[in-house]
Design a protein that fits this description.
Strand order of the largest sheet: 1-2-3-4-5-9
Radius of gyration: 23 Å
Order of helices and strands: HEEEEEHEEEEHEEHHHHHHH
Bound molecules: zinc ion
Shape: elongated
Number of strands: 11
Helix content: 40-55%
Oligomer: single chain
Mean pLDDT: 89
Number of domains: 2
């Protein structure tokens, strides 16, 4: 979908104050001049580039990791955006909304680039957590069934079956569960649902018919999808949160 200049200017007037001039420079792309000497590039309804008066360059994509957005940044700045497995790297640094570089291309805001170490450490935590399925205090025990006393974010669902955790975008409870080794029945049931099992089959699963390995794998994949995949910029923070909760428990 392409926007007309008029539509784009209406958007800019509503959302971006203080510019003095707007010019269409490419399809669905405007350049803006601000009174303080800054310039902006707006693509569709996101100001993707803000070149500040001091020469710094700030980037946004509004959540749209599209090829054209990437191409526009590469074309209209001296910065280089690369896409690797769905993530963007700008001059080698992990992109996030509002990331800012100086005129020489040096990062001036927080560096959220993580090496593989954080990812590995987090996956290891998730693996240890999923291996707790079927164990209580290290001893082989039955699988916990979903019940009303489970974590609300795990157990409450709306009438379409979407969980409160998903609806609210809350992953803190998952970090808590990892730190506390709390594999509740609702979480296991959610993991199985995500594998496509229906409630009847989940009942059989939890009664032990399907074996521990597939249960553990389901929980592992469920946690990985929420905490690892596409969460590069949060890996370090997640690990820190888990470590903090673990430390509190020992204390
Ligand atoms: Zn929970």
């Amino acid at each position: 979908m392409s926007l007309t200049k008029k539509e784009m200017i209406a958007f800019c007037d509503r959302n971006l104050g203080g510019y003095s001039k707007a010019k269409k420079i490419a399809g669905s792309t405007l350049s803006l001049e601000y009174a303080d000497g800054a310039t902006g590039i707006v693509f569709h309804t996101t100001q993707i580039i803000l070149k500040k008066a001091n020469g710094n360059i700030q980037l946004f994509n509004g959540g749209f990791y599209t090829k054209t957005t990437k191409d526009r940044i590469n074309e209209y700045t001296s910065l280089k955006v690369r896409q690797v497995k769905g993530s963007w790297y700008v001059n080698g640094k992990l992109f996030y909304e509002g990331i800012e570089f100086n005129s020489k291309g040096g990062l001036v805001t927080e560096d959220k680039t993580t090496d593989g170490a954080a990812q590995k450490a987090l996956l290891k935590k998730i693996k240890a957590f999923s291996n707790l399925v079927g164990l209580v205090d290290g001893a082989q025990k039955g699988i916990p069934l979903p019940n009303g006393g489970d974590c609300w974010y795990c157990s409450l669902r709306d009438n379409k079956g979407v969980g409160l955790g998903e609806l609210s975008g809350n992953v803190d409870h998952l970090l808590n569960h990892i730190a506390e080794g709390y594999v509740n029945g609702s979480l296991i049931a959610n993991a199985l649902r995500e594998k496509g099992y229906r409630d009847e089959a989940i009942g059989l699963h939890l009664s032990g018919t399907f074996g521990l390995d597939s249960l553990r794998k389901s929980v592992y994949d469920y946690m990985k999808k929420r905490l690892v995949t596409g969460q590069e910029s949060n890996w370090k923070a997640y690990l820190e949160t888990i470590a903090e909760i673990e430390a509190e428990q020992v204390a």
